[in-house]
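Thread amino acids onto this structure.
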């Protein structure tokens, strides 16, 4: 399968450059997606951030070097991209539980994290309802917050942003600006540089942007629109992971360079039957 082949080639590139600078943009290009989507998909597929995977692999190789060579700790630190013994010591100890100098001690217990290989597990036990929608560019208006690209942190921080926005009374103010489709409150993750992104709580609108709000133009794109059923935020977060790990690899599509969109319809978002949508930007492979 071409998708798997490209992704494993990207992992090969990372593996070949653990002792030098890893270009995230190049890794993403090999996997045929943007850097933003590559890092996001990697976290969904492996259940860890890309940066953490690289750190674990480098510390695994560093431990091998410490045990099998006479190289100085400072030289091994530089080899794996650390500018100081202090930062290397911190990274090594966070992975192995002991400082680098203890790695040379006989019978010390260290941890090895092997290179990953991406495979597809066909489940199909829970259906995913979706449709393909083509939509011209449209403008959104609302509040925004800037985030680093860390999926686990984002899963906690973005719901807090929603909670703060509700509590501040901004949702009714934003809702009044909605005069275009989709007719709902939107959560929009804009693609930045692969390291960070802006998240908007907004509506589609061509009205003038109030001074306290921000605007963004969502580009023309084709979207795979998935239905989410269940209480927030777990239902939509679980669906997002399933889309990337189960639907996308076998769909004949790949990520397009456009934002991810969540469409929150009216209703009790904590109810078991609450319905909302995930819009995934796609293009034919």
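Threaded sequence (285 positions):
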């Amino acid at each position: 399968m071409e998708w798997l082949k490209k992704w494993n080639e990207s992992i090969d590139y990372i593996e070949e450059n653990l002792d030098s600078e890893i270009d995230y943009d190049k890794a993403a290009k090999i996997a045929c997606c943007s850097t933003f989507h590559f890092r996001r998909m990697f976290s969904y597929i492996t259940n860890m951030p890309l940066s953490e995977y690289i750190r674990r692999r480098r510390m695994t190789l560093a431990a091998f070097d410490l045990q099998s060579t006479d190289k100085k700790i400072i030289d091994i630190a530089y080899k794996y991209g650390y500018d100081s013994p202090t930062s290397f010591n911190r990274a090594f100890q966070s992975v192995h539980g002991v400082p680098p100098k203890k790695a040379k001690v006989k019978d010390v217990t260290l941890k090895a994290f092997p290179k990953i290989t991406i495979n597809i597990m066909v489940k199909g036990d829970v259906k995913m309802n979706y449709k393909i929608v083509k939509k011209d560019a449209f403008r959104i208006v609302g509040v925004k917050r800037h985030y680093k690209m860390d999926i686990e942190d984002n899963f906690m921080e973005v719901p807090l942003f929603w909670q703060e926005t509700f509590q501040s009374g901004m949702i009714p103010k934003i809702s009044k600006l909605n005069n275009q489709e989709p007719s709902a409150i939107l959560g929009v993750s804009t693609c930045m540089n692969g390291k960070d992104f802006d998240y908007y709580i907004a509506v589609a609108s061509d009205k003038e942007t109030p001074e306290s709000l921000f605007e963004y133009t969502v580009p023309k794109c084709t979207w795979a629109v998935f239905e989410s059923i269940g209480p927030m935020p777990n239902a939509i977060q679980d669906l997002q992971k399933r889309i990337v790990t189960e639907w996308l690899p076998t769909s004949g599509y790949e990520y397009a360079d456009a934002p991810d969109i969540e469409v929150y319809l009216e209703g009790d978002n904590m109810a078991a039957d609450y319905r909302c949508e995930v819009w995934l930007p796609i293009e034919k492979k």
